[in-house]
Amino acid sequence: MRSAAVNLFMNTEDARRLSPGEQHERRRQVIRAYKRKLSKRQIAHDVGLSDPATCKIIDRFNAGGMAALASRKRGRRAGDKRVLTAEQEAHIRQTICDKRPKQLKREFALWSRAAVKELIERDCQVTLHLRSVGKYLTRWGFTPQKPIKRVYEQSPEAVRAWLDESSPPSPSAPRLKVPRFTGR
To answer: Where are the domains of the chain?
Structure first.
């Protein structure tokens, strides 16, 4: 059998799911009822909020008036709970821009999340997950790039000539002798 307190809590609506405007209207309803000298429990029941939420609204009103009830930005503040400090972030960003991993005696050819993770561990003594490193790189404006698979020294004319020579000949065409490349 459920107690009355549990039933009261089950009938309340989760105000976090309401829009900021609806939340503000609920707060105003609580204050109007509070000014009429209703009990906090009765206010919570009438408005459809929990007792703790009602008490918090009344406390905020008593501390700062109606201005304290204005909607605030939700969620964590930008830059809050980051592992790397701003100075460490600037140092890692600058290193990535200025040098390649080979110049720092690393085994990577290009900067990848794994290479940046090793750089952070070496320079900042902080261990991060690859996903966190990816989030830092995105925040810094670095985007993943596909490697270029084309060889720079490639000669398009020589490739075209090779393709023409090495394509399968028709059965009636005479076979040509193609010199082999020896690699010298």
So the answer is: 4-69, 86-139
